Amino acid sequence: MDKELVFITVIGKDRKGIVATISGFLYKNDINIVDISQRVMTDGYFVMTTMVDVKDAGIPMEEMAKQLDAIGEELGMKIQVQHENLFKMMHRV
Amino acid sequence: MTVTLEEIYETAGMILYQNLDIRTTTLGVNLKDCVDSDFEKFRENVYTRISSLAGRLVVEAKKLERKYGVPIVNKRISITPVSLIMETHCQPEKFVDMARTLDRAARDAGIDFIGGFGALVQKGMTRSDRMLIDVLPEVLSKTERVCAFLNVGSTVAGLNLDAVNLLGAMLKRTAEISENAVGCAKFVVFANAPEDNPFMAGAFHGVGEGDVALNIGISGPGVVKSVVEKNRDCDLTKLSEIIKRTVFKITRAGELIGRELAAALDVPFGIVDISLASTTAAGDSVANVMEAFGIERIGAHGSTLALALLMNAVKKGGAMASGNVGGLSGTFIPVSEDSGMIAAVEAGALGLDKLEALTAVCSVGLDMFAIPGDVPEETINAIIADELVIGIVNNKTTGVRVIPVPGKKAGDRVVFGGLLGTAPVMAVNPFSAKEFLRRGGRLPAPVTSMRN
């Protein structure tokens, strides 16, 4: 089955509950997590990225991005929602 | 994962912290088939064509902004050069009415600028071309969103000095009757103007184009500056390589979004213009990129070398990333729209003479600079002619966007606001070429062999 993969990237200062908050939001909206990864980068930023399949998502991507923006505000972190194609284009010849 | 965490972080960082964006999506629209012997019908055709296409452009671009999380800053329209479609309605009041129609169509569709109110006069002027130049002060001062251009020279035709000789007076008049002289910021005069340029104020939909084409202008001085800052000690070869790789990535983002937008609009994808375009936002400055190379202030000796290196790397990275590189694809060094350029002029590091030299290695020309309002019109003509002949002889595009500000003298400042920024008023050589320019005529085209 075709997948529609989107990356949700959370950037900011590390704190408790980031994974729980994001995964709770995704579960509530019927969005499946395909992969998840997190690390503190060399410049000190905490980065977590979640690859999700939005093919059968309960909400449209625009609405998901908007709600995640609001969650980002609450957590005091930046949340970016971007379709997989952007990374494939930019980082693969 | 198909991509690594580092790659995702790099992309996210470019957007969040380094002002990466798609600077403009410009839909080129043919208006030749809108012409009608009934002028009212003609205007209606033009309005309908533009507003329907522009409305869809805005909607679809917003959808892609959300999909990729990359801001698409400007959505614009470029049209067939207006002097061509007005040939059979050659009356001054009709030209002004047409400009108002274009202005209204752009405003109603949520488009900030519409480009193409201009003419191609590199060899000679028709009655319509001449009339268009005559009405430009009124058009530029009475409309808000209409941008105008003239192409007055090319490598194959030479320079039409008779056309250039009309411009100083036209610009001074425009400055007098528009608030803060801002009308002049919406006019560019070119040599070798590209027909698919997506950037304002000089965008138009050339006669060699199809009915419609979507062109993209990327950006990213902030992104390039950031990688240069991380590589303080590498030699020029390595520095060039680093810039090339970065520009490859940002151009690919433009290519992806351009292709998807064209598909969504069901129009052909035109070109990606890989020009680095600055804004007045902190860190989004081409001058600052060169300062990160190790130049104290742009304008210092060494700046021409730095700009040549930057341009060469940008072109190589961009050409690898897209099979459709076109438009201007240089680097813009507008004075008023680049905080580093403004600072360099105000510090006394950069004057008009060095700015002109910089444009010879690769840039689009003398852009968005203010001069005192009492500079004689012949001197403005001479500034334009000097700059354009650099493009004609070197087989490249050059342009001039000059703002003679009434009541201001060298060292003053003029604030345009928004995208157009703040211009320090620059000193002009007080000696005159009046008697030389008075000769008029056309500079013969240069030989393209014997290139030393």
Question: Can you walk me through this structure?
Answer:
The complex is a heterodimer of chains A (93) and B (452). Chain A has 93 residues and is α+β, with helices and mostly antiparallel strands. Chain A has one domain (5-91): Alpha-Beta Plaits. Chain A has helices at 18-28, 61-75, 84-91; strands spanning 5-12, 32-40, 46-53, 78-83. In chain A, a hairpin with a 5-residue loop joins strand 2 and strand 3. Chain B has 452 residues and is of the alpha/beta class. Chain B folds into 2 domains: 24-191, Anaerobic Ribonucleotide-triphosphate Reductase Large Chain (Alpha-Beta Barrel), CATH 3.20.70.20; 219-441, Anaerobic Ribonucleotide-triphosphate Reductase Large Chain. Chain B contains 15 helices and 13 strands. Chain B has helices spanning 5-17, 39-68, 82-85, 92-109, 127-142, 161-164, 167-177, 221-229, 236-265, 286-293, 303-321, 339-346, 352-362, 377-394, 434-437; strands at residues 22-29, 72-79, 114-120, 146-154, 158-160, 187-191, 212-218, 269-273, 365-372, 398-405, 413-415, 422-424, 442-443. In chain B, helix 5 (127-142) links the parallel strand 3 (114-120) and strand 4 (146-154). In chain B, helix 5 packs parallel to helix 7 (167-177), helix 9 (236-265) crosses helix 11 (303-321) and helix 11 packs parallel to helix 13 (352-362). The model of chain B has no long low-confidence stretch (mean pLDDT 94). At the A-B interface, strand 1, strand 2, strand 3, helix 2 and strand 4 of A face helix 1, helix 2 and helix 9 of B.
